Amino acid sequence: MEQVKAVFNGSFDSLDNIQVSPLSRAYTFSDSVYEVVPFYNSSPIAYENHIERLQKSASALSMKINLDMISNEIKKLIALCESKAGYVYYQVTRGQDLIRSHMHSNDMEIETFGYVLAHTFETKSLKTMICEDLRWGRCDIKSTSLLGNVLSMNKAREKGCDEVIMHNNNILTEAGASNLFFVKDDDICTPALSNNILPGITRQILIDTLLDIDIKVYEKDFTLDDLKLASSAWLTSSTKGMAPIEKIINLDCNLSLNNDKYLIAKKVFDSNFFN
């Protein structure tokens, strides 16, 4: 089996050989942020957007990061991958405590970690489940604090689902690891960005791509009742691309995988995402 290539604090090695202190604040407090950077034909997809989002997430936690170093490490990981298609997971942590403390010191040394995996970008139709949004109030920060997502997605897996669609007091937010789009009354809709929604890079690629062919995406607060009336729905993410939803097990709606608006969006998205 191919060893997973990884990097920790500037040192490249196989993932199996990397050791992290139990006093890393990523371990004790989820005091860390991350990015998932997809690549195709050995070229990163929407690279500057991912780097910019990583910077915003780090700044929101008042962490100073070296973007040039991070960029070089991500690109080297891509070059080390034996496959031409895959993704890099890259994480930045505030550092290691001398002893566990909620209040961190101001002179901690940033801890960096990343690895690269081959990935096949194939379209898979998804079975999903509606659930209450259990997450913290700053989901716009791409933090490693994902316990709400983990609880909901594993509950969904027990019911044979691939993903969840979350709502906060009946207002749709996003999926467990994706952004939500749906077609209602022949309009393409997606929940508007807020502190409760991560600004997905793939989400924005789709919106911009559709705008280029004069198809507007409506961004506002949508409810579960809006989703009940959807004729088609799909999720977007760096590893899913555009994945159609075939069924929502606990919502009375009739979704089609052959909806015209979905098929148009999928065609133009694929031509741009994998360009």
Identify the notable features of this structure and list them briefly:
alpha+beta, D-amino Acid Aminotransferase, Chain A, domain 2, 275 residues, globular, D-amino Acid Aminotransferase, Chain A, domain 1, 6-stranded antiparallel sheet, 8-stranded mixed sheet, 30% strand, 2 domains
Q: Can you walk me through this structure?
A:
With 275 residues, the protein is an alpha+beta fold. The protein folds into 2 domains: 5-118, 2-Layer Sandwich (D-amino Acid Aminotransferase, Chain A, domain 1), CATH 3.30.470; 126-273, D-amino Acid Aminotransferase, subunit A, domain 2 (D-amino Acid Aminotransferase, Chain A, domain 2, Alpha-Beta Barrel). The protein has helices at 25-29, 47-60, 67-80, 147-158, 201-212, 224-228, 260-273; strands at residues 5-8, 11-14, 32-40, 43-44, 86-93, 111-118, 126-132, 163-168, 171-175, 179-184, 187-191, 217-220, 232-237, 241-248. The longest helix has 14 residues, at 47-60. It is globular. The model has no long low-confidence stretch (mean pLDDT 96).
In short:
By secondary structure, the protein is an alpha+beta fold.
Tally of helical segments: 7
Q: Based on CA inertia axes, which overall geometry fits?
A: globular
Q: Which value, in Å, is the CA radius of gyration?
A: 19 Å
Report, as a whole number of angstroms, the end-to-end distance: 30 Å
Total number of strands: 14
Assign the CATH superfamily of the largest domain: D-amino Acid Aminotransferase, subunit A, domain 2
Measured as a percent range, the helix fraction is 25-40%
Mean pLDDT: 96
Biggest sheet, spatial arrangement of strands = 9-8-7-14-13-10-11-12
Here the CATH topology of the largest domain equals D-amino Acid Aminotransferase, Chain A, domain 2
**Unreliable residue stretches:** none
The string of secondary-structure elements, in order, is: EEHEEHHEEEHEEEEHEHEEH
CATH class of the largest domain: Alpha Beta
The major β-sheet equals: 8 strands, mixed
